[in-house]
Write a structure and sequence with these properties.
Blueprint: H1 11-23, H2 25-36, E1 39-42, E2 50-53, H3 56-63, E3 70-71, H4 80-83, H5 93-103, H6 109-113, H7 115-127, E4 136-137, H8 138-155, H9 161-175, H10 180-187, H11 200-228, H12 232-235, H13 239-245, H14 256-269, H15 272-287, H16 289-302, H17 308-311, H18 315-327, E5 338-339, E6 343-345, E7 348-350, E8 355-358, H19 360-364, H20 380-383, H21 404-421, E9 422-426, E10 435-437, E11 440-442, E12 448-453
Parallel strand pairs: 2-8
Antiparallel strand pairs: 1-2, 3-5, 4-12, 6-7, 9-12, 10-11
Helix pairs in contact: 1-2, 7-8, 7-21, 8-15, 9-11, 11-14, 15-16, 15-18, 15-21
The protein binds protoporphyrin IX containing FE.
């Protein structure tokens, strides 16, 4: 049994391959898939290979295998500089499972439904600041909405001054990687040099430090409250308080560092991806008039003053959001699965330490699953039910995205709110392709739209 095929990149050409990965990520994946098929490897001669898997059967074999066979935290070390060592994203085994169990509940069921009105109101508040007829970068709006929502869900501090400071600093921090060029900082560690506050890395480090101070100030205050107020546990239901109250079997709670790294992970993972997905959703309904018309018809049939939860159940609206995450998935691959010992998948034998990337992008572009894959067709999600190994925007198994339900709820409500109140136009109504934004694929940050009050109804 052998490894799959893949390009042989002599050392000197390795740098060009990396540049293509950063600056032309879609072509990078598509060119190799066309040449080598839906499982291909990079390297593997001197060290374990990096393998892209866009085959549903291969993906199924990995996601249904015992999760203990793989290390996952190790493969995500590239983002340690952003999240810190104690983030659940970088953990495996019992520690990972325990932290997941603590964090999951507020993102599902009854508690999640409580956020629907909050999402609706925040969307009203942020879009009320729009100047009619004047172009603006749409990402600023979606980023502000999703950041406000996650601050409320995680910290319960939407209104506080500290929340506003965090909002500004986090937005500036993530803007450090908003173009393919600035994303190079992640892929070429030798660029990570602090040459003062004006250098990209120096600026990033200072912003990160300021955010850390604010989060630690919030931790100190909340700990003091917890000690002084008997009713603390019933007064606070946000994730931060739940994490503060949680104890392991030995009665130990999380340290300040563990709290900080997990809060930071939730704040970043919990809004940046959804903000990109929302820009795409707004792009598609603005670019394709028939999609907008169908959506408005569906909203009309529901009637005025409907509850946000009824809106979130609408089938065409749901299909538009599913198709948005299919055609350009925000995370092009799930977290790397690294086998702890040699493993057989689809007849290939992968040595210990191979980096197995479930390629969400290649899977979602398969002609056999999604006819005319380059076309935006929400109907495919109404006509057919896809298995969790055919449609994978949130990954799977024990690492499946914790915030998937919140992300989908936000996408549906923000989209429905905006298109029913405004008529949006793209400043340049041309097809737009994703570009790299850190580890994600996103619409260009400077994409501009123009809003006018809707005369629909
Ligand atoms: C459209 C928006 C989003 C997309 C496309 C997305 C996608 C993903 C994907 C692909 C993974 C990796 C899963 C795997 O490797 O199997 C992941 C993990 C994760 N996501 Fe999301 N996500 C989104 C929104 C959110 C939100 C709103 C939160 C809020 C808390 C969140 C928190 C997390 C966390 C904590 C993990 C790590 C889970 C673990 O390691 O156990 N994500 N997400």
């Amino acid at each position: 049994m052998t490894l799959p095929n893949g390009p042989k990149t002599p050392g000197i050409l390795e740098i060009f391959r990396r540049f293509k990965l950063i600056f032309r990520p879609l072509e990078y994946l598509e060119d190799y898939a066309q040449k080598y098929g839906d499982i291909f490897k990079i390297g593997g001669e001197k060290s374990p290979p990096f393998v892209y898997i866009g085959n549903p059967e291969g993906i199924k074999q990995i996601l249904t295998a015992d999760p203990e066979l793989f290390e996952v935290g190790r493969g995500s070390r590239i983002i340690r500089f952003l999240l810190g060592d104690n983030s659940l994203i970088l953990k495996d085994g019992d520690t990972h499972q325990r932290q997941r169990k603590l964090i999951m509940p507020p993102f599902h069921g009854e508690l999640l439904r409580n956020y629907s009105q909050l999402i609706w109101d925040i969307t009203d508040k942020v879009t009320d600041q729009w100047e009619m007829g004047k172009p603006f970068p749409i990402r600023c709006t979606t980023q502000e909405i999703t950041l406000r929502v996650i601050l409320q869900v995680v910290f319960g501090i939407e209104q506080k001054e500290r929340s506003q400071q965090l909002r500004q600093l986090i937005t500036a921090l993530l803007d450090s990687f908003d173009t393919p060029l600035s994303s190079s900082l992640i892929f070429f560690p030798f660029l990570q040099k602090d040459w003062g506050a004006r250098s990209p890395w120096g600026r990033f480090l200072r912003l990160k430090q300021q955010i850390k101070q604010l989060i630690h100030a919030e931790i100190r205050e909340r700990r003091a409250k917890m000690e002084n107020e008997e009713s603390f546990s019933s007064d606070y239901t946000d994730i931060f308080s739940l994490l503060l109250l949680a104890k392991d079997e030995d009665g130990q709670g999380m340290t300040d560092e563990e709290l900080h790294d997990n809060l930071m992970s939730l704040l970043l993972a919990g809004h940046e991806t959804t903000a990109s997905a929302l820009v795409w959703a707004l792009y598609w309904v603005t670019h394709l008039t028939e999609v907008r018309t169908k959506l408005l018809d569906e909203l009309d049939r529901l009637g005025e003053n409907s509850h946000p939860l009824d809106i979130a159940k609408l089938p065409y609206l749901s299909a538009v959001c599913d198709e948005t995450l299919r055609i350009y998935p925000v995370l092009p691959a799930a977290f790397l699965r690294m086998p702890k010992s040699s493993i057989e998948i689809m007849g290939y034998q992968f040595p210990e330490g191979s980096a197995l990337a479930l390629s969400i992008y290649l899977l979602h572009q398969r002609e056999d699953l999604y006819p005319q894959p380059k076309q935006f067709k929400p109907e495919r999600f109404i006509e057919r039910q896809y298995s969790p190994y055919e449609y994978l925007p949130f990954g799977g198994s024990n690492r499946r995205c914790i915030g998937s339900a919140l992300a989908l709820l936000e996408m549906k409500l923000v989209l429905a709110n905006i298109i029913s109140r405004f008529e949006l136009k793209l400043l340049n109504n041309r097809p737009v392709k994703p570009i790299r934004r850190g580890l994600t694929f996103a619409p260009p940050a400077k994409m501009q739209m123009v809003a006018n009050t809707s005369h629909h109804n």
